[in-house]
Amino acid sequence: MAQTENIFGMHAVLETLKNNSSVQKIYISDSLKADRKKQILEAAPNIEVEPVKNSTLDKMSQGQNHQGVMATIEAYSYASIDEIFAKAKKQNQDPFIVILDEIEDPHNLGSILRTSDAAGVSGIIIPDRRAVQLTPTVAKTSTGAIEHVPVAKVKNLNNAIDDLKKRGVWIFGTDMNGTKYTQWDAKGPVAIIIGNEGRGISPLTKKKVDEMLTIPMVGHVQSLNASVAAALLIYQGFNSRQK
Asked: Which domains does the chain have, with CATH numbers?
């Protein structure tokens, strides 16, 4: 039997209904407003819809903000690195890849997915151990971007980076010392590594980097949330690729 996931929230569920054919069932709170209920029903004409009490959805979502609607889908599948390159080709652009080195917070991954979708990132690569995977919380935080940005899960991140280099991809990392990120020219095939929330990029992975980028900080706190740092770097890459 296929594994399933529950996703919740109006935007996340509607986006999933548009782009994911594996929705199995939808739960709607009895307190959901009529216009929102109509939106869901129109988007899911051939899917079983079960009205439930709001308290039931509270339990199913483990107290998170479900906004009165939840969908059960087959567990999220992962892309391959080849599929990330195929997406770049379809976009008629050189690959623009985000590599996440043991990001642990699902909200960070969800936010990075959302930024990546907005900036036309070709795909994201994550390790299959000691890192957050695609979960309902990630899907909720991404507000539907999880349906549009391919995520490849690899056994060994350093081997994956070696593979990217063989394909002509330049690898950039983030560190306290490096080139000011606003000087980054991300034209051509590139990948940017975002390190773990506390440890940063692992020492072995740092050795794979072609150039380090730094985000200058003048305040007392000398670090940024991983998703904030990723957003700054992704949009610098996006802007430089538009010139």
From this structure: 4-74 (3.30.1330.30), 81-242 (3.40.1280.10)
